[in-house]
Amino acid sequence: MNGVSFSFSSLPHSVDALKALPEASLSTPFQTAALALLALCGFEQHKDESFAMLDFLKGPESVSVFEKQFLTERLSGKGYKVYSFFAGATPENGYTPSVPYSITVYENPYSFDHENWATLWVQSGGADSPRSIKLRKKPSTGEWFLNEIQCLSDIRLPVADDPWA
User: Which domain holds residue 136?
Assistant: First the structure.
């Protein structure tokens, strides 16, 4: 799989901070996928801001009630899942990523099977196989928007929380 890597000196905690990043041009699906994970980093502490950042990344759509419930269910008490996609984050270190925050978004031969759609992949330090993020291009603007975050299924527990470690 081919990958595109991104590096961030800090994590955004507001829509304005997210929009200030060069990747916020959303000119590639890789940028949008990376920003989606950044938007979720502070989910447990700042849920409303995370939803606002995701609204920006979804473009003409908003985060639905179902999506809000899904994210809350997947990330409550498990915020480490999002950090697991960043370089240096492993179960042994409690999924603490290296700084600057680096993430690689991958494509495979099937990522662009349908016009204006992309399924890209991210690798968690706590999972054996990559996880997907689905994106959609708006042809009139050329921007790529978030469609579905499919990468948040459970991963290995942080060693400090694992009674079997």
Answer: 2-158
Is the residue at 164 inside a domain?
Answer: no
Contact 165, 126 (CB under 8 A): no
SS in 3 state form for 36-102? Answer: HHHHHCCCCCCHHHHHHHHHHHHCCCCCCHHHHHHHHHHHCCCCHHHHCCCCCCCHHHCCCCCCCEE
Number of domains in the chain: 1
Q: Can you say how many angstroms the Cα of residue 152 is from the centroid of all Cα atoms in its chain?
A: 9
Q: Is 120 helix (H, G, I), strand (E, B) or coil?
A: strand
Q: Decide if 110 is inside a domain.
A: yes
CA distance 30 to 121: 9
Q: What is the mean pLDDT of each run of 10 residues along the chain (165 residues)?
A: 95 97 98 98 95 98 97 95 98 97 97 98 97 98 97 95 89
Give the span between the Cα atoms of 107 and 56, in whole angstroms: 23
3-state secondary structure of 156: coil
CB 144 within 8 A of CB 24: no
Buried b or exposed e, range 116-155, using 16+ CB within 10 angstroms: eebbbbbbbbbbeebbbbbbbbeeeeebbbbbebebbeeb
Domain contains 124: yes
